Amino acid sequence: MTAALPSAAGPVHGEVVVPGSKSETNRALVLAALATGVSTLRGALRSRDSDLMVAALRTLGADIDWTGPSELRITPGPIRGGGSVDCGLAGTVMRFVPPLVLLADAPVSFTGDPHASERPMAGLLDALRALGARIDGDRLPFTISSSAPAGGRVEVDASASSQFVSGLLLVGARLPGGLVVEHVGERLPSRPHIAMTTAMLTRHGIRARELDDHTWQVDEGCPTPVDARVEPDLTNASAFLAAAAVAGGSVSVPGWPEATTQPGALSLDIFKAMGCEVTVADGIATVLGDGRLTAAGVLDLHEASELTPVVAALAAVAEGTTTITGVAHIRGHETDRLSALARELARAGIVVEERPDGLVIVGGRPRAATFETYADHRMVHFAALLGLLAPGSSVTDMACVGKTMPDFPALWAGLL
User: Per-residue pLDDT tens for 60-97?
Assistant: First the structure.
């Protein structure tokens, strides 16, 4: 259903409390479901992706309860099979849960949204086969069974998604002898997310480390239960901070971590490079802009590819030409994000060239448009930013933003 996007009548000023990180929430849920006792997760994200993860882990035997608006209590149980898991469009569900079936006592079937079958899975499924799984396909839907899981060493082509490596590492400690995971493909995307995985394994008492730039090891053991707090989602935060860059003004996000493995933190450097003033003090990140942005030249976003839609919106209104590179793999995200961004930039009257691994964007003044969202939450963030300077704009599907941030429409309207 088409939804109007608010425009900015002047500079934007405000503070936005951003919900917890989806990446951290869903990793923490998996580790808690494999632990030796009860864990508590505070600041957890409540969204479609996290709800799908909770449902999946319940299907596999965990007892998970929401004890507050953002608090979860996770009681693990033996991993059981015999059920069906709906992955929706959640990459963390379709890449982190299938490895758990190595420990299950019966087959588990996996389904998803219509577009889910287009998301890359073959590299992960081939690695699971090498570890003893039997799988009847290379894309969703498929069924997995396993009777004698193996540990040791496994090769995986994770050039399509670093989640392949993370999914194997999350289950690796429960395999006989632990697991060494070696990436054997082309350039590995989103390495900070693998660092997040190893850091969270360490927090649960599992020895996990990077052996070299393409190999990781986890020792055998059972994760210990923890009481943990999830950081705010810094990629979601970047959309709000970018409002000050696009329209001018000052926007702050509290709870910004002093140190983090979230690649979304790199957005602050991009805001600076494009002419904004950025401060982080007492856990509050603030972006101050005057509504005039300078093109960033060449930006390699391979390590932080989820920022591409926000950066594309910034580039669309900046003076000069910005080239985004290193993000060919986002063609396999919720949609082909490079093609989607190119089409929607053109719809807004922005000069854009689509390249195999990125975009070349010539900044200008966006015109009003009804932006397609392609069932992709990040495309809503992109459209909302352009809509600030293009009164009368709208999106075809605002509801898809509920994948990682159901409150986005209200928070965005409140900021403006």
Answer: 999 999 999 999 999 999 999 999 999 999 999 999 99
Residues 211 and 239 in one domain: no
CA distances from 335 to 120, 210, 354, 401 (A): 11, 31, 15, 14
- Residue 118 C-alpha from the chain's centroid: 17
How confident is the model over 118-169, as pLDDT tens digits?
Answer: 999 999 999 999 999 999 999 999 999 998 899 999 999 999 999 999 999 9
Last-in-domain residue among 217, 252, 286: 217
Angle at 96 between CA 37 and CA 308, to 5 degrees: 125
Question: How many Cβ atoms are within 10 Å of 91's Cβ, its own excluded?
Answer: 23
Instruction: Take residue 215 and report the two structure tokens written for it.
Output: 């190999």
Boundaries of domain holding 72: 22-217
Taking 50 as the pLDDT cut, the residues of the chain under it are: none
Cα 125 from Cα 135, distance rounded (Å): 7
Residue pair 175/150 in contact by the 8 Å Cβ criterion: yes
Q: Residues 134, 13: one domain?
A: no
How many domains would you assign to the chain?
A: 2
pLDDT at 1: 79
Q: Which residues contact 168 (CB under 8 A, 6 or more apart)?
A: 99, 124, 127, 154, 156, 179, 181
**What are the backbone angles phi and psi of residue 205, rounded to the nearest 5°?**
85, 10
Distances (CA, A) of 159 to 90, 188, 203, 292, 325: 18, 5, 27, 36, 15
Radius of gyration from C-alpha coordinates of the chain: 21
d(CA 414, CA 18): 13
| Distance, CA of 375 to CA of 113 (rounded, Å) | 10
HSE of 136, CA atoms in CB hemisphere, 13 A:
10
Question: Residues with catalytic annotation?
Answer: 306
